[in-house]
Amino acid sequence: MFYSRPAIEPLGWDLLALPTPDGSRNFAARTSDDRPVDFRFSSGWLTVERGDVGASPDDDMDEVLSMPISPFGIMDISAEQICDILGLTVNRRPAIVPDWRADRGFDWSGRTTYWCSTHSMMLRDDAELLAAKICAAFDDAVMLQNVWLWQPPRVRCRQIKFMLDSDDYARFAIGCDRERVAQILSADEVPLEEFERVLFPKIYLMRTDHGEDLSGSRMIRERSAAAPEFDYHTIQHRHYRIWVEYATDDARAQAMMATLLQVFDSHFCRGLEIVDLETGEILGEDWTDEEDTRSYSVPFKEWCAENARRYLSVGMHREADGSRERFVGFRPVSSSRGSFAAR
To answer: Which of 26, 229, 242, 340 shows the smallest number of beta carbons within 10 Å?
Structure first.
């Protein structure tokens, strides 16, 4: 999913003062017409609530906005950035947002564009195949692995020709100055700032599941202890996160991103078919993926297609009216894959 400056219609509110921290994820403020306001930034989502004129912050508020403005995992946002993103003034004046730098968190100014997604992938050969596809799509691609060192911040870096099953991480140098990349590779250590400046755009492929059970089978066994044993087959798999970051107005980087999206479209699929594990009834399809975290690889889809009782994962599904909860399996939809280019 693409992230940059959020496309939010300015709210046009005037605040008496900058929002102040109110807990770990909330900011509180009051408008010049005496309404309490609450801003919450959590898991990449920004939620805004506003109360009635003269109300207390403890009174009920109405939700005005709730939307993802950054990938999951981004934790920090300043009061000035909130005001700038939402089109708020403080005592009739725009909030002054400090100049953004790449080592100071996420950039909501619009000068940087990010693309972030998480995908379910097979344990073996899947990430290796994707990395090879990325390198094959670019004449100048160099695949790297690095170690971060601190005090002062610096990096030790090496080039790799291919990924192994045991590799959890790779970074790709594409469209970078080849001579400077070679200098980084030949040096024992380089300052972190120089490393990030040379290897820009940033392109990461990293494993994020840390080895936990993603299949859902353990939960099904625990919750269905008194029920008949279900006939299904899942397999342990991995989650990989792809992170791309580039200057929004860089035409070359835009062309690079377009090529990357073609690679991703060739390797990943969307859409889940929901099946009742007890009856085999198809309950419907689920294409919701607001945060780009629910797609799966073509090899994983092909594995599921070999047997009708194979699933990407299993879990619980509640009826729309909340009246019933079922044990279900999630498997790939049979229709064509959805494109990543529009997200």
So the answer is: 229
Q: State pLDDT tens for residues 114-163.
A: 999 999 999 999 999 999 999 999 999 999 999 999 889 999 999 999 99
CA 309 to chain centre: 30
Residue type, 320: A
- Residue ranges of domains in the chain: 2-94, 112-332
Residue 88 amino acid letter: L
Q: What is the helix (H) or strand (E) element at residue 314, kind and residue range?
A: strand 313-318
**CA geometry: angle 199, 202, 203, nearest 5 deg:** 115
Both ends of the chain: CA-CA distance in Å? 5
In the numeric block, which tokens belong to residue 271?
């859409």
Read off the pLDDT of residues 234-261 as tens digits, 9 standing for 90 and up.
999 999 999 999 999 999 999 999 999 9
Residue 206: partners with Cβ closer than 8 Å, 6 or more residues away: 168, 169, 170, 240, 241, 243
d(C-alpha 329, C-alpha 99), whole Å: 48
The single-letter DSSP state of residue 290 is T
Judged by DSSP in three states, 130 sits in: helix
Q: Do 311 and 296 form a contact (C-beta atoms < 8 A)?
A: no
**How much is the pTM?**
0.89
